[in-house]
Description:
single chain; alpha+beta; 14 helices
Amino acid sequence: MYEYLIQGGIPIHGEITASGNKNAALPCIAACLLTSEDVILHNIPKIQDTSVMIQILQSIGVEVEQLSANDWKIKCEKITQKTLPEELTKKVRGSIVFAGPLVARTGKCSMMPPGGDVIGRRRVDTHFLALEQLGVNVKVNGQFIFQTKKLIGADIFLDEASVTATENAIMAAVLADGKTIIQNAASEPHVQDLCNMLNLMGGKISGIGSNVLVIEGVERLHGCEYTIGPDYIEIGSYIGMAAVTKGKITICGIREQEMRPLKNSFLKLGITWKIEGDKLTVPNSQMLKVNSDIGNMTPKIDDMPWPGFPADLTSIMTVIATQVEGTVLIFEKMFESRMFFVDKLISMGAKITLCDPHRAVVTGSSILHGDHLVSPDIRAGMAMVIAAMCANGESRISNVYQIERGYEDLVGRLQSLGANIKKVEVE
Length: 427
């Protein structure tokens, strides 16, 4: 086991390049199952979750070759197993996206319920309802069993704009007989990446970026070469870290359009940046003061489906708010356990009132002091790293495996920006 030791109070400075989008990499890896030809994926982040997804492919007979640190060649010519290994699927929530492509390619997929972050109930009903409308028989008996003799296009209205359910439905529909319409579809950048990759493989998907997708089924897909887009959640995390440590950093490889939903919420906390081409610079002259709503009302930062503010950044914004003068309401609507990590921030000196499982009122700015923290999930773990970075004294963070599931070479990248952070082995 490993822990992070962080000496706080040191501004970060320098330049980094955004990693590939974790949430795009996972379905794109799974989508390789839809063809027997070579697929080359570039900009795959070197993190725990992508490593597990690759291992799952290998376990069912897929040929995998790592071309470089972030580039992979995947050939799914032979699929020897239709049952995914439990010890791997329980490690990553994203393993659920193997269901759509594996049942589309082979007619069957069996798996145990996926694991991942413990941030509240994460229902899979939407996956089942969507696949059933495409002609998949779904059985739940301790494990999930998906079977079909033939996939048939359908007009589907998702009961929630679930990202992974949208992705599973897309990957099944792309090889279905006839036209599929998916309404109330998720439209996040990672869903767009998946659709663009499938179109390169010969798929016929329109409406990309909207909440209505139209998919004309094709008989077969071919190989392709595709580059995963930047991880805007990672980018947002580094923006917040630079602001609260009073540092200045430049992040290369960004997509300006993907930063627009983040901009308004960061502005509420007095944080701005400059974009030139694909480079985003966070200056060290931040206001760090809450911009109240009209009438001096307390502003709210709340998550919504894209193009709303992303749920994966609410934990990060909670920590940032502790270092900003004024009061703000953080409203996390999706997961009822995600905000429970704030007790650790309170122990560090933060002024936070947890109103209920979804809402927290944060009043800043607070002087934080170092503490021993335990990461409960990817995003809360990164939030704790940010808290430690701006706290007085040394902090120790345990269960860093959770953080490294979503952030590539975090220690090395922070060290390159001047942070005093070490990864140490403990019993």
